[in-house]
Specification:
269 residues, alpha/beta, Rossmann fold, 2 domains, three-stranded parallel β-sheet, 16% strand, globular
Length: 269
Amino acid sequence: MGRIPEMYVVALGSLKAGCVFTPLAPGSGADALAECLSAGDARVLVTTPILFRRTIAEMLDRLPDLELVLIVGATEDSLAEALLPKSDLTPTVMSFGVFISEGHDTFEAAPTPPDAPALLHFTSERRGDRRGVLQVHDTVVAQVASAATVLDLGRDDVYWCTAEPGSAASTSYGMIAPLVLGVTAIVDEAEFDARRLYGILADQSVEVLYTDADAVQLLQRNGPAMAPASFDRLRLVASIGEALDTTSARRISEVFGVPVVPGPDQWPR
């Protein structure tokens, strides 16, 4: 899924239930998704009608262990089932909303020791052979510590992480760390746009921006003229993924009027 509320519901619900949460980028092709789902022994997949039709339906015959597909935005079981050709191999397909409505009114979080698996991320295909990286529940200690120090996040801050859904940064620093720290986190479903980014920074009084190098470079080339004279509340910009070169970091710092630093994912482990 993209940056929609249900993605966060699924992530937090999975962790509370003691499951392993595996975010997958919505732009991934069928082969890449099938590889990740198979390697992760996935039993449940949550997606949207568009992504189901475009990518997932064609690969289900390669995933015999998949038991359940939940489709966000399908309001009735009949709608969800109509998206899937009948066969002996197909998993159960139903509306995410119907599935949630049939749940219990009360819930007790599963007890999880520190070394219990929590998150499974897959590295980008651009970096060579794709690998699965498993994180345990105790990882939250490092996530929170690095967010508090590198990103300077504290309770009552307004913070925006624009990391791509499916990335480790999106999960660790877009969901988990800000929630544990008591931070107000901005989520925007739309694709990157310089004018929109500046508007949200100003309208929502964002204090810390954690964004990827590609977006920073687009801002550098196309965005300076659109920027307001100043950002009253913004105090720090951090970059995700590839480290910015000195020239790019300096130019972006001049646009925002604040320091630009490497994000937690760029620091040595």
